[in-house]
Amino acid sequence: MRPLNPQDITRSVLASLADTPDERLREIMGSLVRHLHAFAQDVKLSEAEWFAGIDFLTRCGHITDEKRQEFILLSDTLGLSMLTVALNQDKPAGCTEATVFGPFHVEDAPHVERGGDVAQGAKGTPCWVRGRVLGLKGEPVAGAKLDVWQSDEEGLYDVQRPGLGRAQARGVVQTDDQGRFDFRSIVAVPYAIPHDGPVGQMLQATGRHPWRPAHLHFMVQAPGYETLITHVFRADSDYLESDAVFGVRPSLVCDWLEQDDGSFLLEFDFVLNATPPA
Ligand code: BEZ
Ligand code: FE
Prior knowledge:
Layout: H1 6-16, H2 23-43, H3 47-63, H4 70-77, H5 80-87, E1 126-135, E2 145-149, E3 170-174, E4 180-186, E5 191-192, H6 198-205, E6 211-212, E7 215-221, E8 228-234, E9 253-254, E10 257-258, E11 264-267, E12 270-272
Parallel strand pairs: 1-11, 1-12, 8-9
Antiparallel strand pairs: 1-4, 2-3, 2-7, 5-6, 7-8, 10-11
Bound molecules: benzoic acid (BEZ) and fe (iii) ion.
């Protein structure tokens, strides 16, 4: 029998995929196998290291449930989430840039009237948030839905407080006929992403920290426009240069202005890309 030859193994696996009926799946699986095998050869992966990798992924699976998504955290901290965002951003210049979605969005957040309070009892310094949703030609986008979510002053999202049982620091607001929105919330602070699991161990082992700069999440949706998933970051925040999930874009960094009464004001306009005509 011939000695085991790495190239033969790669070739055999690729050949086994040749009849994959879905062309795109065949392309993705083939590329995955080629890169995975090249990686193992590149680092000359030992069997103990291979097992450590399997054990790591197993632990990611065990800690994952409907509230905790360790695989998304892994993708985020390896920059894969942000790379995927970047690869799918072919918007014209002038549109607001997108960034990572993160694991803390919740469907069906409560609707909040114009000028209303998104914080709903979440602790933090009051912050007024207002701006406009516009199209690329400067046209106001009336009736746009802005899904907003953020952590409280302790750096926790409502879903990270098991006893809470209701929405806090999240809500859905709508623009008026001039494309304006206006709501009250709390000032965002930097916070650490969940790091009590395998991804936290990976960060520690590689000398990295788990912190994200202060930000407010937005998902902006309007008929006739592409949905925008993004954040607005605080210009005076720590970690803008070392976001644990690589999500900062300079165009999304903005001054949150302290007012005489100690509250803050964030003003930001979103520019949406029109969906191409069918
Ligand atoms: C967030 O901003 O909510 C987030 C993003 C990626 C990983 C963890 C949290
Ligand atoms: Fe966040």
